[in-house]
Write a structure and sequence with these properties.
Strand content: 15-25%
Number of strands: 13
Oligomer: single chain
Largest sheet: 8 strands, antiparallel
Structural class: alpha+beta
Mean pLDDT: 83
Distance between the termini: 19 Å
Length: 344
Amino acid sequence: MFKNVMVYRIGEGFAPALADVQAALEPMQFVECGASQDKSIGWVPPRGEAHGPLVESVSGQWIMKLMIESKAVPGNVVRRKVDERIAEIEAATGRKPGKKEKRELMEDALLSLLPQAFARQSTVLVWMDLENRRLVLNAGSQGKADEVMSALMNVMGGLSVSLIQTVTSPQAAMTQWLLAPTPDEWPADLTVERETVLKSTGEDAASVRFTRHHLANDDVRKHVMEGKLPTQLALSWDGRVAFVLTETLQLKKVQYLDGVMDESGTDKTEDRFDADVALSTGLLGLLIDSLIEALGGEMELGAAAADPAQPNPTRTVVNSTLQTGAAGAAGAAGAAATEEDPPF
């Protein structure tokens, strides 16, 4: 269910009732883009059933799903249409349009082309663990995460969240693990796998990518000693979950290893939503706890980093108030669809 993981800490005192969250989500349900609309954002039933609940509770874990639909018109198509209009104006009046008029022509061209653009949909799964004050997003890019946070602000009264910071930054820890003389130096339950990206901090910004490569060797250590630091490192946890850890404490390419989610003997028509949620959140919750422990534990807000040369990502805080409004949110016309981060 979660291919990517971004983890936030929920602030103290946030304890809404499930029924109140459902009521707040209903006015913000997803509605497809209109003819001249370039983006629409709204909540959909996470179980996938039409008219189902917008928030599901499974073993105390709350699951929601945000739908994002966007339409983008290629820039060269817009420019070609604008050039045609400029040529028509020059032929009819003998003058060239000014900058303001060109901007207006650009906007008009975009609006006329949007109804012909194909809509692209994507979803982001949201997991809220109130007992452990943890919010987890299945988002592969910061742009997607920001859109989810903005949508949550519209429905979650009193919510405040912050990016988790650890005493040892992920990059500093990954560096130590790659320099370890033997696997015995790796944290308990974590195993360094066969992929990494190393980048230089110098002006040349040189980088090297190892794929399907044994990393506990002198070749990799030499690159690290020369100043190339890991920005991504493939790991596995307890022989059950494989993932790629990034320097910003994101987990990408999350995979459950053989036998963890074995569906043998299961009726393929059976609704596995509850079972999948229970297993996924249970495993990922333990993985996150283990990873934070391997990084020296969670840092208190305002505390100084243990390794100033390897600072953690900036801690951000979002405060929200309960709001209601029309379903879906349209962006400004002409915005291109945001791409996910490229796969590792």
